[in-house]
Amino acid sequence: MSSQGHFSLSRRALLTGAVLASTATAAGLILAPHLHNRHPRAQPDGSYRKLRLGWSGAEHCPVFAAAQQKGFFAHYNLDIEVVSSSANGHETLDAMQNKAFDYAVASALIWIQYLNNTLPARLVLGVQPGNFRLLVRRSSGITRLDQLMGRTVAIPDRNAADKLFFAVMMRRKGLDAMNRITWQDMPVDQIAEAAQAQKIEAVAAHDPVGWQLLHEHPDLFTELVGSNTGHYAERTSLVLGVSDAALAEDPAAATALVLALMDAAHWADTHRDEVATLIADDTPALSSDSARAMLHSEPLIRPVAGGAFRDQIAQYCDELQLIGLMPDLEDSAALAHKFTRNVLHA
C-alpha cells in the first residue's frame, strides 16, 4: 500500500564493494530531494470537539469499534455521535448533503458518484478494505463468473456497493454484469429460502451478512469470488469524507478524526480476537467465535492517506467509468486530486 518504492541491489552488486558504494550514493542522491520536499505532519491541537458522524453499519466495523470502545476517539479529545448507523451509504450521503452532519464514512464507489454530482466534500482517509463476497448456490453448478450471465443474483440492499464491486470485477473480464444479470433486491431473512427454492442462483453481500449466509448455510452456499484475497484485498473501500464547510471552518477537527481512525485501524488489525468481541456485543446474530473467525478471514486492516489514497480513488473513478456510472469526460487522476484532501499535511 505504500507509495514509496524499495531499492534493491543485484547479487553481483552485493559481491562488488565499489558497485555497492556507488549504488548507495546514487540512492542517496535520489532520496534526498524527496525527503526535503516532504510536508511536515499536521498535529491535533488538543481541543475538545463533539462531532456528528454518518456511518452505515458502524457497529459492525472493527475500526469504529476500536476507536469508540478502546479510547482512540477520546485520546484525540473527540466525542463522536454516530448518526443513521443503520442507513445505507446512499442514505448517509443524502443526509450529509442535507447538512445533517459534516463527516461521513461510506464506500468509495458510492462517495465518488456523489462527489461527481457536486456534493461539497473531500475524501480524507481510506479507513479499511471491503469485505465483499459473491456466494453461489451449490446446486446451481456455477463455477465461473461468466456462468452468472442471464441469471438472478440477490442483493440485500440495492444501495450498497456490493453490486458495483462485482460489476467492476466482471467488466474487467469482459462481462456486462450491470445489464446481463438480474439483480434482485431481497431482505436478508428471505435469501436462504429463495436459494433453496432455486429462485436465485447467487447473492452478493458484504460482511457480516456475507459471512453469516456462508457459514449458517454451508450446504446451500459456496463462495465463488470476493475481495478478501488477491490485489482486491489491498484496496481501501470504506472512506471518510468531510464537508468543504467543515474543512474550511475547523481543519484541525478533520486531522484529529483521521489520526484517531488510523490509530484504531492499526490496533484492530493486530487485536482481532479482542475486536471480534466488541463487534459481537453489538451484533446479536453474530457470536464472538463467529466474529473472530470472520475477522481472521478478512484482509489486513490498513488505513490509507496521502498519495496512495489519491491513487486508489483514481482507480475507482476509472472503474465507475468502465461500468457506465460516470461519464468518461475527465482524467481519473484529475478527478482524484479534486475529490481528495490530505489533512495530515501541516
UniProtKB/TrEMBL annotation:
Residues 1-26 form the signal peptide. InterPro entries: SsuA/THI5, TAT_signal. The keyword Glycoprotein does not apply. Residues 60-273 form the SsuA/THI5-like domain. Keywords: Signal. It holds the Pfam family NMT1. The keyword Transcription regulation does not apply. PANTHER family: ALIPHATIC SULFONATES-BINDING PROTEIN-RELATED. This is ABC transporter substrate-binding protein. It comes from Acetobacter suratthaniensis.
